[in-house]
Every structure is written in C-alpha cells, then in structure tokens.
Amino acid sequence: MRIAVTGSIATDHLMTFPGRFADQLVADQLHTVSLSFLVDNLDVRRGGVAANICFGMGLLGTEPILVGAAGSDFDEYRAWLDRHGVDTGSVRISEVLHTARFVCTTDADHNQIGSFYTGAMSEARLIELKAVADRVGGLDLVSIGADDPEGMLRHTEECRSRGIPFAADFSQQIARMDGDEIRILLEGATYLFSNEYEKGLIESKTGWTDEEILSKVGHRVTTLGARGVRIERAGHEPIEVGCPEEEIKADPTGVGDAFRAGFLSGLAWGVGLERAAQVGCMLATLVIETVGTQEYTLRRAHFMDRFTKAYGHEAAAEVRTHLA
User: Fold this and answer.
1) For the chain, first and last CA: distance in Å?
2) Quick check: is 210 catalytic?
3) DSSP designation for 250
4) What confidence score (pLDDT) does residue 35 get?
5) Which of 12, 107, 147, 257 is catalytic?
6) pLDDT value at 29 more than 80
7) If we measure between CA atoms, which residue out of 139, 142, 203 comes closest to residue 169?
8) In which band, very low, low, confident or very high, does the pLDDT at 82 lie, cut at 50, 70 and 90?
C-alpha cells in the first residue's frame, strides 16, 4: 500500500535564557522594546507534521512518501529521513525560500518568546499529486496534514477529482480556517483525524453535528490523550483502544504525529482498525518518553514486549509478522 503524507516540513531552534524576561522589561518603555538575550544553549530539532509522521512510518518499514516544500537548506534533513526509510523524492525545493523554522527562547520561569517562519512551506500549493503518483506507480491513500492552507485545499480537491482516497488531518491549521474551508477539507475523507478539542471545534465551525460529520467521512479517528483513541463509523459500534503504560513522561510534543504514523502503517500492512490503532498508541508512547519528535528509536524486541503486555499475545502475533 503506497501512502503519501502531505504537510509541513520544519526545524525547531530552541534556546534557553537563564534569567527572567520580566526582569528585563521596563513598564513605561514597552512600546519601544529592544532586547537581546544571551542564551545558554541551542537545541535544533527536526520537525513538521508530515516529516514527523513519515519518520515514524519509516521506522516501521512502510516506506512513506513525503510530500511538502522545503528550502535549499534541506539536504541534511533529507539525508536523515532517507536513512530512516522515508521516500523524499517528492519534496519540492524552493529556489528562494528557506525551510520553515520555529525559533523560540524560554526563560527560567518557562515563559517563551517565539517566531514561526513559514518560508518554503508556502510553495506546497504548487505541488501536484499526479506527478507524485506517476513517480511511484500510483497512490492508495494520501494523508493531508497541516500545511500551507491553499496547498491543503488543492491536495484535497485533487484527491477527489482523481479518485484517490484521502485522510483529512488539519490539526494546527484548524484555528485559522473557517467553516467553509473545513467542510471542503473533510467531506468525502476516508479518515478524519483530530483530538477531542479539535473534534468540538470542527463541529462548532462547520455547524454539523457529530452524526452529520460521520455521514460525510468513512472513519472518524479521535485521539483522547492518555485514554487512547476512539474510531467511529456510521452504523457501527465505536472501537476504543487504550494506551500502553508509560515508563516516563518526558515530552508530549509529536505524540499525535506518532499515533498517525503507527495507524497509517497498520493500514499499509492490511491489519484491522483496532490493530492499527494499537500500533499507533504504542508508537505514541515511545515518543512521549523521549524529548524531541524524531529522537526516539524503535527496537523491535522492546516494541513487541511492550505491545504484548498492553494488548495481548494474539494482537502481538499479528503485528510481529509485519515488524519482522
């Protein structure tokens, strides 16, 4: 099963200031702030929702196709993804813009000052999925994640017009989209991904009830935080899957992307929805135990031991054949 994942490709530049921002601010001079903070360290992390999802799928051996836009500074990041089983041949490289970047400084009180540079991500709207499909011999599913909004709309319409099944996964972009845009992005989706809060926001912005949305998509996949995930289909009983026990809670960033990576990999393997959700929850647990969205490793024996403990021997036997 050939799965393409569209969405953002970015790097995070995270710095730590040992003092307090508040001590550097003069109350009657806030209209003319000019400050420079000497930071202790710089942590550069690879990110972007599409790249995060593809990284996890690559670790699981499902050879995802990354579709997005990056800058000429993408070479090192590309090499990293290539080494971890990701097909990066459909990434558009901008001739004038850098890869999207989040730059953030955190002080001793955990206050943050950050900026997000969209950069090359704005060129995602120029990518045609037909060219991607022609290069790889066809697409069985396209997961349309948070990206340049015009690019998301174009990819959705192209999937519809070409009869390519797609998953709607607008996550971070839902806040800036209106009801009309959300209706376009989700109607006819084979899968609709969201967390619980986003689920409510989708219903509020579209004006559609939960039942109406279920009638317009094949499956509604809602992540429930520590409670796992719920999968709904019109006319069927919901499937609910819990999370494996965590060994440590280090950093929740990227957990949702890891779930999607595991779930989509399960679909690629051809296992059922419950198994796919279990793989997603197991991978998400590995991420929450690691600082950084692509810093975790997948040791097969360790993965299967924990998977077996969480979901039983029958489930593990079905998944083990694919991991091997």
Assistant:
1) 17
2) no
3) -
4) 81
5) 257
6) no
7) 142
8) very high
